[in-house]
Design brief:
The chain is mainly α. It has one domain. The chain has eleven helices and three strands, in the order ααααααβααααββα. A three-stranded mixed beta sheet has the order 1-3-2. Helix 7 packs across helix 9. It is globular and about 50 Å long.
């Protein structure tokens, strides 16, 4: 009964609920995404020298500057475009059908966003052990200058991932399988696995996968409870804004962060210390979002 609100978001998926459609849609989306991505970068590199191209690749790959992080986040727009083409071709659905009623989604997004921003403001002032206390990174003036682009890029990235995992994969599975365990767990596990980083120690990589899987379950539950992607996008946006723009682990992707933690994701001891704190914050965010939806 608690997932009754989800039915309108599942309904457009029912005519093509077979697994063959979902698998074909995932494969087609990936192929289109990488094809467009390849073409875009080939056009860019054609205008650069070999040395300039290598410098651009290295800078974007490391994401140690604000511009490189924004580019990495903005590229996710290609995922939304690819998904839109796939769902139209294979499911005769528009991209908006993955979101739910737009006015309702925007209202729910706003409610959850306000609640989570208030929670984030409180957690920022909580004391932390010295070994994980953030250190200044980007000068405040420069951080503010990039803030509008940061917000836009993060909305692009988080919306794209929610459209793919909760909007598309979850709704298609929900149309095929009545058991919520299947359509809550499967997209969440896949979401966790795509966060696998082979450069990390095995234990650290497992922690990242576990955290991403639990985040996926929280976003999946909010989507099913609310009937739109609004709350999941708000949760994802606030989480990524905190982890990318407020305080990021040192190393790749810390270019936009106002602060950095005095450790990288490769530090097993520090990550083991921080992981329970981060999981507790995730739990509080999920509960806050649920309370915001009850207003």
């Amino acid at each position: 009964m608690r997932y009754d609100a989800y039915d309108p978001l599942i309904a457009p998926a029912r005519p093509t609920a077979g697994l063959q459609f979902l698998i074909a849609g995932i494969v087609l989306t990936i192929l289109i995404y990488y094809s467009i991505n390849y073409l875009v970068w080939m056009v860019i590199f054609a205008m650069l020298t070999s040395d300039q191209s290598m410098a651009v690749i290295t800078t974007i790959d490391q994401s140690r500057t604000p511009g490189s992080v924004i580019i990495n986040l903005s590229v996710f727009a290609l995922l939304s475009v690819s998904l839109a083409i796939s769902v139209r071709a294979l499911h005769q659905r528009g991209l908006m059908s993955l979101i739910g009623p737009l006015p309702w989604a925007i209202m729910q997004f706003r409610r959850v966003l306000v609640g989570l921003v208030l929670l984030l403001a409180v957690t920022m002032f909580l004391p932390m052990p010295n070994e994980i206390t953030p250190l200044p990174n980007l000068p405040f003036g420069k951080w503010v200058m990039f803030l509008p682009l940061t917000i836009i890029a993060l909305l692009i990235q988080t919306s794209a991932e929610e459209l793919a995992f909760r909007g598309y994969i979850q709704s298609q599975l929900a149309a095929r399988f009545p058991n919520p365990v299947i359509w809550l767990m499967v997209p969440s596990v896949v979401f966790g696995l795509v966060h696998y980083d082979p450069s990390l120690p095995a234990q650290n990589a497992l922690i990242v996968i576990l955290w991403a899987t639990l985040f996926g379950m929280a976003a999946a539950d909010l989507t099913a409870r609310s009937g739109t992607l609004g709350p999941a996008i708000a949760l994802h946006f606030v989480n990524n804004f905190s982890a990318i723009a407020i305080a990021a682990p040192q190393g790749p992707f810390d270019g936009l962060a106002l602060y950095t933690f005095p450790f990288s994701l490769a530090s097993t001891d520090a990550l083991t210390t921080w992981a329970p704190v981060d999981l507790l914050i995730l739990l509080c965010c999920w509960l806050t979002a649920r309370l915001a939806l009850r207003r």
